[in-house]
Design brief:
By secondary structure, the protein is an alpha/beta fold. It contains 16 helices and 6 strands. A hairpin with a 3-residue loop joins strand 4 and strand 5.
Length: about 400
Protein backbone atom coordinates (compact mmCIF):
# COMPACT_ATOMS: atom_id res chain seq x y z
CA UNK A 1 0.00 0.00 0.00
CA UNK A 2 1.67 3.23 -1.15
CA UNK A 3 1.22 6.85 -0.17
CA UNK A 4 -1.15 7.34 -3.08
CA UNK A 5 -3.70 5.15 -1.33
CA UNK A 6 -6.38 7.40 0.24
CA UNK A 7 -6.53 5.31 3.43
CA UNK A 8 -2.78 5.60 3.96
CA UNK A 9 -2.84 9.33 3.33
CA UNK A 10 -5.79 9.76 5.68
CA UNK A 11 -3.83 8.14 8.49
CA UNK A 12 -0.81 10.33 7.79
CA UNK A 13 -3.06 13.41 7.78
CA UNK A 14 -4.52 12.55 11.17
CA UNK A 15 -1.03 12.18 12.61
CA UNK A 16 0.01 15.50 11.10
CA UNK A 17 -3.05 17.23 12.48
CA UNK A 18 -2.31 15.94 15.97
CA UNK A 19 1.27 17.14 15.54
CA UNK A 20 0.06 20.59 14.55
CA UNK A 21 -0.38 22.33 11.21
CA UNK A 22 2.08 25.10 11.68
CA UNK A 23 5.09 26.13 13.74
CA UNK A 24 3.64 24.42 16.79
CA UNK A 25 6.50 22.26 18.10
CA UNK A 26 9.43 23.61 20.07
CA UNK A 27 12.62 21.77 19.20
CA UNK A 28 14.89 24.13 21.15
CA UNK A 29 13.15 23.60 24.50
CA UNK A 30 15.76 21.11 25.71
CA UNK A 31 16.41 20.36 29.40
CA UNK A 32 19.95 21.74 29.10
CA UNK A 33 18.88 25.07 27.61
CA UNK A 34 18.71 28.11 29.86
CA UNK A 35 15.38 29.82 30.48
CA UNK A 36 16.52 32.76 28.35
CA UNK A 37 17.33 30.59 25.32
CA UNK A 38 14.41 28.19 25.57
CA UNK A 39 11.65 28.94 23.10
CA UNK A 40 8.47 29.75 24.94
CA UNK A 41 5.28 27.91 24.12
CA UNK A 42 1.74 29.22 24.45
CA UNK A 43 -0.74 26.41 25.00
CA UNK A 44 -4.14 27.98 24.41
CA UNK A 45 -6.90 25.90 25.92
CA UNK A 46 -10.37 25.69 24.37
CA UNK A 47 -13.77 26.27 25.92
CA UNK A 48 -15.69 23.60 24.07
CA UNK A 49 -19.41 23.87 23.43
CA UNK A 50 -21.97 23.95 24.94
CA UNK A 51 -21.14 27.20 26.71
CA UNK A 52 -22.11 27.72 30.32
CA UNK A 53 -23.79 31.11 30.53
CA UNK A 54 -26.50 32.83 32.52
CA UNK A 55 -27.22 35.33 29.77
CA UNK A 56 -29.81 35.12 27.02
CA UNK A 57 -29.04 35.88 23.40
CA UNK A 58 -25.47 34.53 23.43
CA UNK A 59 -24.23 33.14 20.11
CA UNK A 60 -22.61 29.73 20.76
CA UNK A 61 -20.80 29.58 17.42
CA UNK A 62 -17.57 27.66 16.91
CA UNK A 63 -16.47 30.09 14.20
CA UNK A 64 -16.85 33.06 16.57
CA UNK A 65 -14.80 31.25 19.18
CA UNK A 66 -12.05 30.29 16.77
CA UNK A 67 -11.81 33.73 15.19
CA UNK A 68 -10.91 35.26 18.57
CA UNK A 69 -8.68 32.35 19.62
CA UNK A 70 -6.71 32.30 16.39
CA UNK A 71 -6.08 36.06 16.61
CA UNK A 72 -4.56 35.51 20.06
CA UNK A 73 -2.44 32.62 18.80
CA UNK A 74 -1.33 34.69 15.80
CA UNK A 75 -0.21 37.44 18.17
CA UNK A 76 1.89 35.00 20.19
CA UNK A 77 3.36 33.34 17.13
CA UNK A 78 3.99 36.22 14.74
CA UNK A 79 4.37 39.21 17.06
CA UNK A 80 6.14 37.59 20.01
CA UNK A 81 8.05 34.75 18.33
CA UNK A 82 6.59 32.05 20.59
CA UNK A 83 5.68 28.53 19.58
CA UNK A 84 1.97 27.79 19.89
CA UNK A 85 -0.16 24.78 20.74
CA UNK A 86 -3.87 24.85 19.95
CA UNK A 87 -6.10 22.58 22.01
CA UNK A 88 -8.83 22.78 19.37
CA UNK A 89 -6.48 20.92 17.00
CA UNK A 90 -5.51 18.50 19.80
CA UNK A 91 -1.96 19.84 19.86
CA UNK A 92 -0.03 19.01 23.02
CA UNK A 93 2.76 21.16 24.50
CA UNK A 94 6.31 19.82 24.97
CA UNK A 95 7.14 18.20 28.29
CA UNK A 96 10.12 20.50 28.84
CA UNK A 97 10.63 24.19 28.34
CA UNK A 98 8.65 27.26 29.28
CA UNK A 99 4.98 26.49 28.62
CA UNK A 100 2.32 29.09 29.36
CA UNK A 101 -1.20 27.69 29.76
CA UNK A 102 -4.08 30.11 29.09
CA UNK A 103 -7.77 29.84 28.31
CA UNK A 104 -9.69 32.34 26.21
CA UNK A 105 -13.42 32.82 26.80
CA UNK A 106 -15.60 34.77 24.36
CA UNK A 107 -19.27 35.67 24.25
CA UNK A 108 -20.93 37.41 21.31
CA UNK A 109 -24.54 38.38 21.87
CA UNK A 110 -27.51 39.79 20.00
CA UNK A 111 -26.86 43.26 21.42
CA UNK A 112 -23.69 43.58 19.29
CA UNK A 113 -21.40 43.01 22.28
CA UNK A 114 -18.47 40.62 21.96
CA UNK A 115 -16.78 39.98 25.30
CA UNK A 116 -13.29 38.49 25.40
CA UNK A 117 -11.49 37.28 28.51
CA UNK A 118 -8.03 35.69 28.81
CA UNK A 119 -7.10 33.91 32.03
CA UNK A 120 -5.29 30.94 33.49
CA UNK A 121 -7.23 27.66 33.12
CA UNK A 122 -6.61 27.03 36.83
CA UNK A 123 -8.72 30.00 37.89
CA UNK A 124 -7.86 33.43 39.15
CA UNK A 125 -8.56 36.84 37.71
CA UNK A 126 -8.29 37.57 33.99
CA UNK A 127 -5.07 39.00 32.56
CA UNK A 128 -7.12 40.57 29.77
CA UNK A 129 -10.78 41.47 29.49
CA UNK A 130 -12.48 43.66 26.91
CA UNK A 131 -15.86 44.08 25.24
CA UNK A 132 -15.96 44.87 21.53
CA UNK A 133 -18.81 46.14 19.39
CA UNK A 134 -19.35 44.24 16.17
CA UNK A 135 -21.39 44.90 13.02
CA UNK A 136 -25.14 44.77 13.48
CA UNK A 137 -25.46 42.83 10.22
CA UNK A 138 -25.13 39.10 10.83
CA UNK A 139 -23.66 38.36 7.39
CA UNK A 140 -20.82 40.82 8.06
CA UNK A 141 -20.04 39.86 11.64
CA UNK A 142 -16.72 38.23 10.72
CA UNK A 143 -15.55 40.73 8.11
CA UNK A 144 -16.35 43.58 10.50
CA UNK A 145 -14.46 42.03 13.41
CA UNK A 146 -11.35 40.86 11.56
CA UNK A 147 -9.78 44.34 11.06
CA UNK A 148 -10.31 45.03 14.77
CA UNK A 149 -8.63 41.76 15.72
CA UNK A 150 -5.74 42.50 13.37
CA UNK A 151 -5.04 45.75 15.23
CA UNK A 152 -5.44 44.03 18.61
CA UNK A 153 -3.06 41.22 17.62
CA UNK A 154 -0.29 43.79 17.17
CA UNK A 155 -1.04 45.76 20.35
CA UNK A 156 -3.50 44.85 23.09
CA UNK A 157 -3.09 41.08 22.69
CA UNK A 158 0.70 41.40 22.87
CA UNK A 159 0.39 43.38 26.10
CA UNK A 160 -2.03 40.80 27.49
CA UNK A 161 0.31 37.92 26.74
CA UNK A 162 3.23 39.79 28.27
CA UNK A 163 1.15 40.42 31.39
CA UNK A 164 0.46 36.68 31.52
CA UNK A 165 4.20 35.92 31.49
CA UNK A 166 5.08 35.43 27.83
CA UNK A 167 8.30 37.18 26.81
CA UNK A 168 8.76 38.68 23.38
CA UNK A 169 11.49 36.93 21.44
CA UNK A 170 13.62 39.10 19.21
CA UNK A 171 13.70 37.60 15.76
CA UNK A 172 16.90 37.69 13.75
CA UNK A 173 16.15 38.71 10.19
CA UNK A 174 17.71 36.16 7.86
CA UNK A 175 18.14 36.31 4.12
CA UNK A 176 14.74 36.94 2.56
CA UNK A 177 13.70 34.26 0.07
CA UNK A 178 10.34 34.15 -1.64
CA UNK A 179 8.47 30.84 -2.00
CA UNK A 180 9.84 28.69 -4.77
CA UNK A 181 7.99 26.75 -7.42
CA UNK A 182 7.81 23.75 -5.09
CA UNK A 183 5.53 25.68 -2.71
CA UNK A 184 3.17 26.65 -5.52
CA UNK A 185 3.10 23.01 -6.56
CA UNK A 186 2.07 22.00 -3.03
CA UNK A 187 -0.73 24.57 -2.98
CA UNK A 188 -2.12 23.20 -6.25
CA UNK A 189 -2.58 19.72 -4.82
CA UNK A 190 -5.95 18.70 -3.38
CA UNK A 191 -4.18 16.92 -0.58
CA UNK A 192 -4.06 17.51 3.18
CA UNK A 193 -0.40 16.50 3.48
CA UNK A 194 0.66 18.91 0.73
CA UNK A 195 -1.29 21.81 2.27
CA UNK A 196 0.19 21.13 5.71
CA UNK A 197 3.65 21.13 4.15
CA UNK A 198 2.99 24.49 2.48
CA UNK A 199 1.78 26.28 5.62
CA UNK A 200 4.53 24.78 7.77
CA UNK A 201 7.13 25.99 5.27
CA UNK A 202 5.55 29.45 5.35
CA UNK A 203 5.56 29.65 9.15
CA UNK A 204 9.16 28.47 9.25
CA UNK A 205 10.23 31.04 6.65
CA UNK A 206 8.49 33.88 8.49
CA UNK A 207 10.06 32.83 11.80
CA UNK A 208 13.53 32.75 10.24
CA UNK A 209 13.36 35.60 7.72
CA UNK A 210 10.54 37.84 8.84
CA UNK A 211 7.14 38.46 7.34
CA UNK A 212 6.75 39.04 3.59
CA UNK A 213 3.72 39.41 1.28
CA UNK A 214 4.65 36.28 -0.65
CA UNK A 215 4.77 34.04 2.42
CA UNK A 216 1.61 35.61 3.83
CA UNK A 217 -0.05 34.69 0.55
CA UNK A 218 0.98 31.07 1.06
CA UNK A 219 -0.66 31.08 4.50
CA UNK A 220 -3.86 32.63 3.14
CA UNK A 221 -4.26 30.07 0.39
CA UNK A 222 -2.93 27.09 2.34
CA UNK A 223 -5.25 27.58 5.29
CA UNK A 224 -8.21 28.29 2.99
CA UNK A 225 -7.48 25.02 1.18
CA UNK A 226 -7.26 23.18 4.50
CA UNK A 227 -10.61 24.65 5.56
CA UNK A 228 -12.29 23.10 2.53
CA UNK A 229 -10.43 19.80 2.84
CA UNK A 230 -11.47 19.34 6.49
CA UNK A 231 -15.08 20.48 6.17
CA UNK A 232 -16.41 16.93 6.43
CA UNK A 233 -14.47 16.03 9.58
CA UNK A 234 -16.33 15.74 12.86
CA UNK A 235 -14.21 18.35 14.59
CA UNK A 236 -13.56 22.10 14.55
CA UNK A 237 -10.49 22.01 12.30
CA UNK A 238 -12.31 23.64 9.40
CA UNK A 239 -13.28 26.66 11.57
CA UNK A 240 -9.68 26.96 12.82
CA UNK A 241 -8.25 26.99 9.32
CA UNK A 242 -10.90 29.39 8.03
CA UNK A 243 -10.13 31.86 10.83
CA UNK A 244 -6.39 31.64 10.16
CA UNK A 245 -6.88 32.22 6.45
CA UNK A 246 -9.06 35.29 7.09
CA UNK A 247 -6.66 36.77 9.65
CA UNK A 248 -3.60 36.31 7.46
CA UNK A 249 -5.52 37.78 4.53
CA UNK A 250 -6.21 40.89 6.60
CA UNK A 251 -2.56 40.99 7.64
CA UNK A 252 -1.61 40.89 3.97
CA UNK A 253 -4.13 43.62 3.13
CA UNK A 254 -2.57 45.91 5.74
CA UNK A 255 1.02 45.13 4.79
CA UNK A 256 0.37 45.59 1.07
CA UNK A 257 -1.85 48.67 1.51
CA UNK A 258 -4.88 46.89 0.07
CA UNK A 259 -3.17 46.05 -3.20
CA UNK A 260 -5.02 44.12 -5.87
CA UNK A 261 -2.90 41.04 -5.20
CA UNK A 262 -3.77 41.16 -1.49
CA UNK A 263 -7.46 41.55 -2.32
CA UNK A 264 -7.31 38.55 -4.67
CA UNK A 265 -5.87 36.52 -1.82
CA UNK A 266 -8.62 37.66 0.53
CA UNK A 267 -11.27 36.87 -2.07
CA UNK A 268 -9.77 33.39 -2.36
CA UNK A 269 -9.96 32.98 1.42
CA UNK A 270 -13.62 34.05 1.49
CA UNK A 271 -14.39 31.71 -1.42
CA UNK A 272 -12.84 28.50 -0.14
CA UNK A 273 -14.36 29.00 3.31
CA UNK A 274 -17.89 29.44 1.95
CA UNK A 275 -18.38 33.16 2.69
CA UNK A 276 -19.30 33.77 -0.92
CA UNK A 277 -20.99 37.16 -0.46
CA UNK A 278 -17.72 38.57 0.88
CA UNK A 279 -15.77 37.08 -2.03
CA UNK A 280 -18.17 38.79 -4.43
CA UNK A 281 -17.70 42.07 -2.56
CA UNK A 282 -13.93 41.83 -3.11
CA UNK A 283 -14.37 40.97 -6.77
CA UNK A 284 -16.57 44.05 -7.17
CA UNK A 285 -13.83 46.12 -5.54
CA UNK A 286 -11.44 44.69 -8.11
CA UNK A 287 -13.85 45.88 -10.77
CA UNK A 288 -14.54 42.48 -12.23
CA UNK A 289 -16.51 39.42 -11.30
CA UNK A 290 -14.67 37.42 -13.94
CA UNK A 291 -10.95 37.59 -13.21
CA UNK A 292 -8.83 37.34 -16.38
CA UNK A 293 -6.27 34.59 -16.72
CA UNK A 294 -2.69 35.50 -15.92
CA UNK A 295 0.59 33.76 -15.27
CA UNK A 296 0.64 30.47 -13.42
CA UNK A 297 2.58 31.83 -10.45
CA UNK A 298 1.96 34.56 -7.91
CA UNK A 299 2.77 37.27 -10.41
CA UNK A 300 2.47 40.94 -9.69
CA UNK A 301 3.81 43.70 -7.51
CA UNK A 302 2.42 43.30 -3.99
CA UNK A 303 3.00 46.99 -3.24
CA UNK A 304 -0.15 48.12 -4.96
CA UNK A 305 0.59 48.79 -8.65
CA UNK A 306 -1.60 47.13 -11.30
CA UNK A 307 -0.87 43.41 -11.29
CA UNK A 308 -1.41 40.51 -13.60
CA UNK A 309 -3.88 38.14 -12.01
CA UNK A 310 -2.31 34.84 -10.92
CA UNK A 311 -3.97 31.93 -12.66
CA UNK A 312 -5.56 30.55 -9.48
CA UNK A 313 -7.78 33.65 -9.30
CA UNK A 314 -9.81 32.13 -12.14
CA UNK A 315 -11.36 29.78 -9.58
CA UNK A 316 -12.84 32.57 -7.46
CA UNK A 317 -15.54 34.02 -9.69
CA UNK A 318 -17.19 30.77 -10.85
CA UNK A 319 -17.27 29.23 -7.38
CA UNK A 320 -18.51 32.34 -5.59
CA UNK A 321 -21.29 32.59 -8.20
CA UNK A 322 -22.04 28.84 -7.92
CA UNK A 323 -21.38 28.34 -11.63
CA UNK A 324 -20.61 24.63 -12.00
CA UNK A 325 -20.16 24.75 -15.77
CA UNK A 326 -17.68 27.64 -15.60
CA UNK A 327 -15.60 25.78 -13.00
CA UNK A 328 -15.36 22.72 -15.22
CA UNK A 329 -14.31 24.98 -18.09
CA UNK A 330 -11.52 26.53 -16.00
CA UNK A 331 -10.18 23.07 -15.22
CA UNK A 332 -10.32 22.05 -18.88
CA UNK A 333 -8.51 25.20 -20.05
CA UNK A 334 -5.84 25.28 -17.32
CA UNK A 335 -4.49 21.81 -16.45
CA UNK A 336 -2.64 23.14 -13.38
CA UNK A 337 -5.99 24.29 -11.96
CA UNK A 338 -7.93 21.13 -12.79
CA UNK A 339 -7.56 19.44 -9.37
CA UNK A 340 -8.98 22.38 -7.43
CA UNK A 341 -11.52 23.24 -10.13
CA UNK A 342 -12.80 19.67 -9.91
CA UNK A 343 -12.89 19.68 -6.10
CA UNK A 344 -14.82 22.96 -6.04
CA UNK A 345 -17.13 21.71 -8.79
CA UNK A 346 -17.92 18.66 -6.68
CA UNK A 347 -18.64 20.90 -3.67
CA UNK A 348 -21.25 22.78 -5.67
CA UNK A 349 -22.67 19.54 -7.06
CA UNK A 350 -23.03 17.83 -3.69
CA UNK A 351 -24.90 20.86 -2.34
CA UNK A 352 -27.89 19.79 -4.45
CA UNK A 353 -28.08 16.44 -2.64
CA UNK A 354 -29.09 14.60 -5.82
CA UNK A 355 -27.73 11.06 -5.57
CA UNK A 356 -27.01 10.43 -9.25
CA UNK A 357 -25.25 13.78 -9.65
CA UNK A 358 -23.08 13.18 -6.60
CA UNK A 359 -22.20 9.64 -7.66
CA UNK A 360 -21.23 10.67 -11.19
CA UNK A 361 -19.19 13.61 -9.90
CA UNK A 362 -17.40 11.42 -7.36
CA UNK A 363 -16.42 8.91 -10.05
CA UNK A 364 -14.84 11.71 -12.07
CA UNK A 365 -13.02 13.08 -9.03
CA UNK A 366 -11.68 9.69 -7.97
CA UNK A 367 -9.34 9.47 -10.96
CA UNK A 368 -7.97 13.03 -10.71
CA UNK A 369 -8.02 13.82 -6.97
CA UNK A 370 -8.03 10.47 -5.12
CA UNK A 371 -6.82 12.16 -1.91
CA UNK A 372 -9.90 14.41 -1.67
CA UNK A 373 -11.46 12.44 1.16
CA UNK A 374 -14.32 14.91 1.52
CA UNK A 375 -15.60 13.75 -1.86
CA UNK A 376 -16.02 10.21 -0.58
CA UNK A 377 -17.54 11.43 2.69
CA UNK A 378 -20.23 13.36 0.80
CA UNK A 379 -20.81 10.43 -1.54
CA UNK A 380 -21.37 8.15 1.44
CA UNK A 381 -24.22 10.49 2.43
CA UNK A 382 -25.70 11.54 -0.90
CA UNK A 383 -24.65 8.79 -3.30
CA UNK A 384 -27.21 7.00 -5.46
CA UNK A 385 -27.94 3.55 -4.10
CA UNK A 386 -26.81 1.53 -1.12
CA UNK A 387 -23.89 -0.01 -3.01
CA UNK A 388 -22.47 3.41 -3.89
CA UNK A 389 -22.72 4.76 -0.36
CA UNK A 390 -21.09 1.63 1.07
CA UNK A 391 -18.26 1.83 -1.46
CA UNK A 392 -17.69 5.52 -0.66
CA UNK A 393 -17.71 4.84 3.08
CA UNK A 394 -15.10 2.11 2.59
CA UNK A 395 -12.86 4.48 0.64
Amino acid sequence: MGLTNPKTLWGVCLLLQMAGPAYAASDDASPDASEDTQRQVLHLRTEFLPYRTDRDGVYPFRQCRELIRQAMLLSARDEMGAATCDETLHETPPRVGHVLELRLVERADANRNWRVKLASPDGGGPVFEKTYTYSNTAVYIYSGMIPILDVESRGAFVEALQAAGLRKREQSAGEARDPGAEIEELLRQVDLVAQYAAVRAAHRAIAEQGESPAWLGVLVRGYANLAMLTRHQWCTATEVFAARSWLYAQRMMVRCEESRLARWHRAYAWTLTGTLHLALDDLRQLGQLEVPAGDAGDAGDAAGSPEVAPSWTRLIGPYSQCDRQALKQVGDEAPELKPWALRMWFELTSAYGIGTWVTDAAEECATVIPTATGVFADTAIWGAGLGTTRMAAAM
